[in-house]
Amino acid sequence: MTTAEQTEFLSGGLRPHECRSCGTCVLVKKNSIQHTSIQWTSRPADTCPVFAGSDGPSALLDTCPELADSISAAVREGTLAVADG
Prior knowledge:
This is Ferredoxin. By secondary structure, the protein is an alpha+beta fold.
């Protein structure tokens, strides 16, 4: 795989998405219904109340359930496309 192909695979198709719960903006790509790529544009513990309120290191959290719900709602509404159709 070339560098350009790797870059496209990792960041191609990422779209800004604002969490409906807290307003944190992330970059999102839905590769399939089951697979979601999320790139944070800020430190999660600085902008997301769920990560900020974590009892332990925020790096141990898989994701924010509020953000996951927000992304799912955007898919259902058709404002966020799923790559595999």
